[in-house]
Design goal:
Number of helices of chain A: 3
Radius of gyration of chain A: 25 Å
Radius of gyration of chain B: 23 Å
Family (chain A): Belongs to the PIGX family.
Largest interface: A-B, 47 and 55 residues
Distance between the termini of chain A: 67 Å
Number of strands of chain A: 14
Largest sheet of chain B: none
Structural class of chain B: mainly alpha
Distance between the termini of chain B: 18 Å
Membrane topology (chain A): Single-pass membrane protein
Helix content of chain B: 55-70%
Oligomer: heterodimer
Helix content of chain A: 10-25%
Largest sheet of chain A: 6 strands, antiparallel
Subcellular location (chain A): Endoplasmic reticulum membrane
Strand order of the largest sheet of chain A: 7-8-5-11-13-12
Pathway (chain A): Glycolipid biosynthesis; glycosylphosphatidylinositol-anchor biosynthesis
Shape of chain A: elongated
GO biological process, one term (chain A): GPI anchor biosynthetic process
Structural class of chain A: alpha+beta
Chain lengths: 241, 418
């Protein structure tokens, strides 16, 4: 269900005035993608904004490939709820997600976010994905938090009317699912981006491993005292019938 | 007199159902209109699992569905009829729990008026109201456990055993009641009286031990054990046949081996998080199990003649000393507290003070936990200390209950004297 094939043959061309399927090369190279994370703590929103110049072609399919590190996860069941609501978030995940594993016991994954630009009015695409942070291993130094970096997504475009790959010789061609239903594979054009920021950094609190002895002793001492006190009272006030 | 309406069962039970129904209706409104949802995530898990069943698949295809298939099966009307069917079922079981508490207290000789007032501690309690109207299934289990105790009190052993087997199938924790039930049903050995009088002569350890073990061989206990085992293993075999290893793992093994390192009320949370990958992990898990086991054995032996008190103490100790503790677990013993309250010699103000202390303990934990989870502050140390404080508070409250508990005969005498 989740497998898809990425093929990236790369060709280069010096023709700067090339017009591809009615889409100007300059227009393609003016696209700006930025990512930011809103919120604090273990539950945040990752907002990706794609700015297009005016004169968007009639119908253009957009695919944002987010490569997310193992310290972050998305809840597919939460996403399914969002799909049913007004937000129409179309996301495909490339592997099953373990919702409870700590970061060092799982791996990163890719989230494919689908959108469609229709008409000449659409200059801005803004999509928000709810993300959650995993627990990380305790630190044994002075750090009270770990830093998790999320890079900018890859931007892939596909036109319904123009599927001839020979038009895109100067671009990388990528095979990926056509839609979030993952029922067929299409060829997408990967756009080289002027990335405004290279990555977003999240700080996730971690436990203090240097206190492990104190925590073990303190916990066992308190539980032993509570157990003993309760046992003594239970025995002392036992009912003799 | 104030609050006399609480003493009328014809008002109390319908009112408690109507309040819960209103909460379900409001919850549906909040889910549709607000960003923060009223319905608990667990309810969506149950419904997704029920949907898989309607499609002829295993409910365990739903990730994080860690319950018996019985629950997903009885919630299939969520798919066929209406999404809120399950919530209606849960609030009905919640009110049924209150009714069973009332019946139990009446069977113990408590007047209807006093029994109603005690029941209102459950029926008008916002905690179980909120839990069942949000879609948690705890009320099914509280109703089953109370029905088991009621049947035992009324000496309907076959029904008690069947309900007990079903309770243990649905959630593991009632298995701890097996020892006090066995001790209560065995032949009671009393010098000079009873079915098997013990000769008042000096006996060696061997014959005492043999006498103790032989006391377990009586018809009532064997009947209970056989019926409970048939129900438990019968259901287990049926669902293993249908769903295989997934059923055993998700319903039982996951809970027995669960090591959730994420923050929760347990006093062991931080210790287990810091040592999760070390070689001490297994030994510390065992060390954490010892106080729990020791207290359960002691309570079983000391209080098995009063099963209501025994089961309440069992569950409160089990939850307080467990390696994982979430707020849903509190309902497991809160439903048994009304059975114990008429026998407590605490004043109303003392009871209110203990309740306030309990909530203070929770609040002291919830504060730093909120700042960790939603604000990203490193409050692990504060959460750990709050977890230890909560354990101390729980133990203090249990000590007060044990110290101020008057057995049934003495309590009845006390009420006669008043």
């Amino acid at each position: 269900l989740y497998n898809f094939v990425l093929t990236i043959p790369v060709y280069f061309s010096d023709d700067k005035d090339q017009n591809i399927c009615g889409i100007g090369r300059q227009w393609l190279e003016s696209i700006l993608v930025s990512t930011e994370c809103n919120g604090n703590g273990f539950h945040r929103e990752m907002v990706t904004t794609v700015k297009f110049s005016p004169d968007v072609p009639n119908v253009l399919n957009v695919l944002l490939v987010h490569k997310l590190p193992r310290g972050i996860y998305v809840d597919p069941y939460q996403l399914a709820t969002l799909n049913d609501s007004d937000s129409h978030l179309q996301i495909l995940l490339d592997s099953p997600i373990n919702l409870e594993a700590p970061a060092h016991r799982t791996g990163g994954f890719s989230a494919l976010l689908y959108a469609t630009l229709v008409g000449q009015r659409s200059k801005l695409l803004k999509k928000s994905i709810p993300i959650h942070c995993r627990y990380h291993e305790p630190s044994f130094g002075d750090q009270k938090a770990v830093i998790v970096n999320i890079g900018s997504p890859d931007l892939l475009l596909r036109s319904e009317t123009c599927n001839d790959g020979s038009n895109f010789k100067s671009y990388s061609i990528v095979d990926a699912p056509c839609t979030a239903t993952n029922s067929s594979i299409c060829s997408w054009v990967q756009i080289r981006l002027n990335k405004e920021q290279s990555h977003v950094s999240l700080q996730i609190p971690v436990g203090d491993g240097s206190l492990v002895i104190h925590v073990i002793c303190g916990t066992l001492l308190v539980t032993f005292i509570c157990c003993s006190a309760l046992s003594l009272k239970i025995w002392k006030h036992r009912v003799l019938t | 007199m104030q609050f006399t309406f609480l003493s009328h069962k014809h008002f109390l039970f319908p009112a408690s159902f109507i309040i819960r129904l209103a909460l379900v209706i409001y919850g549906d409104y909040q889910d549709r209109t607000m960003e923060v949802k009223y319905t608990d995530i667990d309810y969506h898990v149950f419904t997704d699992a029920a949907r898989f069943i309607t499609q002829g698949e295993s409910p365990y295809n739903r990730s994080t569905y860690r319950y018996t298939p019985v629950l997903a099966w009885i919630l299939t009307p969520n798919i066929y009829l209406n999404f809120t069917f399950g919530k209606i079922l849960f609030i009905l079981c919640d009110v049924l729990t209150g009714l069973l508490i009332y019946q139990y207290l009446c069977l113990r000789g408590i007047s209807s008026e006093v029994a109603c007032r005690v029941c209102s501690l459950w029926l008008l309690n916002p905690l179980p109201m909120g839990v069942s109207s949000r879609g948690n299934a705890e009320s099914i289990l509280t109703a089953l456990v109370l029905c088991t105790l009621l049947c035992l009190e009324g000496r309907r052993l076959t029904w008690a055993a069947a309900l007990y087997g079903l309770s243990v199938h649905m959630k593991i924790y009632p298995v701890t009641y097996a020892l006090p039930i066995a001790l209560a049903l065995r032949t009671q050995v009393t010098p000079g009286v009873g079915r098997e009088a013990v000769h008042p002569q000096r006996r060696g350890w061997g014959s005492s031990l043999w006498g103790f073990l032989r006391s377990f061989l009586n018809g009532e206990l064997l009947l209970f054990a056989v019926v409970a085992a048939i129900v438990f293993f019968g259901l287990g075999a049926l669902f293993y046949h249908m769903y295989g290893w997934d059923f055993l793992h998700e319903t039982y093994l996951y809970h027995l081996t669960r090591r959730d390192i994420r923050h929760n009320f347990s006093p062991y949370f931080y210790m287990l998080y810091l040592t999760a990958d070390s070689e001490w992990s297994q030994w510390l898990g065992l060390a954490a199990f010892v106080p729990q086991l020791a207290l359960l054995l002691l309570v079983s032996w000391v209080h098995h003649r009063d099963l209501a008190l025994c089961c309440f103490l069992h569950t409160a100790i089990f939850v307080s000393f467990n390696k994982v503790c979430t707020s849903q677990y509190f309902l497991w013993y809160l439903c048994l507290l009304p059975l114990v309250i008429p026998n407590l010699s605490l004043s109303t103000w003392q009871g209110v003070a203990l309740l306030a202390l309990w909530f203070t303990g929770q609040g002291a934990w919830l504060g730093p936990a909120y700042f960790l989870e939603f604000k990203g502050h490193n409050t692990f140390l504060a959460i750990w200390l709050a977890g230890l404080l909560f354990l101390v508070i729980n133990c203090f409250i249990l000590v007060q209950i044990v110290v101020h508990y008057r057995p049934v005969a003495q309590a009845a005498q006390g009420r006669k004297d008043k």
